[in-house]
Amino acid sequence: MISTTRKGILAIPWYILLPVVLVGTGVLVPLIYLLVRAFEADAETMSTIVFRRRTFSLFLNTIILTTGVLVTTTLLALPLAWLTTRSDMKGKKIFTLLGILPLAIPGYVMAYALLGMSGPFGTSAELFGVPIPRPAGYWGSLLALTLYLTPYLFINLRTAMLGIDPALEETAQSFGYPPRIVFFNTVLPQLKPALYSGGLLVALHVLGDFGVVSLMRFETFSYALFLQYTAAFDRIYAAWLALFLILMTVSLLFVDARLLRGLRLSRSGRGASRHRRIVPLGSWKLPAYLFIGVFVFASLIAPIGTIVFWFLSQSDAINLSGLRSAAAGSLSVSIPSAVFAALLAIPLAYLGVRYPSAISRTFERVAYVGYAIPPLAFALSLIFFTLQAAPFLYQTLGILIYAFTLHYLAEAMGPIRSALYQAPPQIEEAARSFGYHPFAAFFKATLPLLRKGIIASMAFVFLSAMKELPLTFLLSPIGFETLALNVWSYTIEAMFADAAQYALGVVVVSGVFVILLLRQEKKT
Q1: Based on the domain organization, do 1 and 114 belong to the same domain?
Q2: How far is it, in rounded angstroms, from Cα 206 to Cα 444?
Q3: End-to-end CA distance of the chain
Q4: Can you name the residues that pair with 87 across neighbouring β-strands?
Q5: Rounded Cα distance, 446 and 438, in Å
Q6: What radius of gyration, in Å, describes the C-alpha atoms of the chain?
């Protein structure tokens, strides 16, 4: 393995370092410009902005929503993960798939479904004659985000439970501890990394969410930033709102790093790991099936049923031209973003795997900044930067693809980095011994081994880009349409029938890609 300990940055070839530096510059420069714009105000104005009562109210709303979603997703994901890994219930593979599939329903589509099934003319009232109170505000946002984000935590916890050595539980049980004590004292501590990483992912999504809180009319920093942009565009106040969001994100990342510091949960023995013990549910079997059934109904059946109901209830013919235009718009951004993100992820992942050092780790972390920063804040920083440095790029398709690429670059890096770890460096070194230039040796020997990782990374980015709303809303050209934009714009006007075909398009495309990615992961 190549190291940079002696020559530092000079040991990294220029054709690897150049795209890495471009990525770092592309992420950091707009953020620096956002910081500059925020501090353009005088001290009195800044004091008024920072300490005004509305800022504190936005901060409190954002905190309680994030905390509430973390609590509810944990209460749902933890028992769901245990039931699908440790219990004797039938159909665990099917229930696992059903627990993950809500990822195909973006938060704003989930909010659309909740609004569409409630109220005096909603799905429930029309089909069953039972009107459901229309969700709104905090509780509506909490419900929609919980149903959408639970699979993120469920995947992390389920994977962690499958990796726990059952010998730990057997040892605790041999001392006479009851199952409940064994779970809380032995199993739960082993799940800390999964809880932290999954919880961080959930919290980042809540902080960056704009679609759900705008449809539910609950004011968080993201919603206030949206209102400031559309209603009364005060650039300094908007910049400060974006900085508050970024500060909360950085605080989350810092807390996560502190919690994981020094955490060691690996096995100390050399013996073989035993098979997991299956726990009989006994009299709890019926409540377990009811629990999973209610979750699947709330997160999958009811939302999809509502979308189909409104789709079929359209009095006019399906607007095929509008659907084609929106789908073409989504594809025109998603496809190039997926390709560019994968291309940039290759040198970044290669740097981290083949040149491990403090320098490579720093560059990797910079790449993750674009993903961690809330989309509206990142979009606003690009708006400020392009208006000042390159106004010809403002509200063009190019800047939108640029934003998508940098924002989802972190998603593209994972599969490629995993593939690089599995690609023996000796093959590339052998190619060099035959006289190939290092660049040519990479293309001849290593790149073919990365094919599956590259395809998976492009699929991840494509799936995320097809569902993206905040970046598209702020950065897209005038008149530009996507499936996500049309779902949101029709729903906010309570035009549920008009939004249905676009919501159905998002769900179908996302569902197909989620299933394909799960099948690919299973093969891997």
Answers
A1: no
A2: 43
A3: 24
A4: 279
A5: 11
A6: 24
Amino acid at 344: L
Task: Using the structure block, give the residue that is written with the tokens 């052998």.
Answer: 430
Residue type for position 127? L
| DSSP line for 213-231 | HHHHT---HHHHHHHHHHT
Same domain membership, residue 216 and residue 362: no
Range of the domain at 59: 52-261+286-312
Give the tokens for residue 372. 């961690």
Phi, psi of 300 (to 5 degrees): -125, -60
Domain count, the chain: 2
The model's pLDDT over 159-210, given as tens digits with 9 standing for 90+, comes to: 777 777 666 666 655 666 666 666 666 667 777 777 887 888 899 889 888 8
Closest alpha carbon to 68 in 118, 140, 132? 140
Could you give the 3-state DSSP secondary structure of residue 279? strand
**Chain position carrying tokens 């810092």:** 254
DSSP letters of 361-373? HHHHHHHHHHHHS
87 secondary structure, DSSP code: B
The reply to whether 468 and 443 lie within a common domain is yes
The CATH number given to whatever domain includes residue 432 is: 1.10.3720.10
Claim to verify: residue 476 and residue 454 sit in the same structural domain: yes
227 phi and psi angles, rounded to 5 deg: -65, -40
At 278-328, the pLDDT tens digits run 778 888 889 999 999 999 999 999 999 999 988 888 766 667 777 888 888
Look up tokens 């025109």; give the residue.
332
Phi, psi of 341 (to 5 degrees): -65, -40
Same domain, 376 and 438: yes
Report how far Cα 423 is from the mean position of its chain's Cα atoms: 27
Residue 274 falls inside a structural domain: no
Is 225 found in the same domain as 115?
A: yes
Q: Is the dihedral of CA 153, 159, 162, 166 positive or negative?
A: negative
Last residue of a domain, one of 296, 312, 328: 312
| Inter-residue contact 395 to 403 (CB < 8 Å) | no
Among 370, 389, 368, 474, residue whose Cα is nearest residue 37: 389
Query: Mean pLDDT over all residues of the chain?
Result: 81
Q: Measure the CA angle with vertex 84, ends 81 and 89; round to 5°.
A: 140
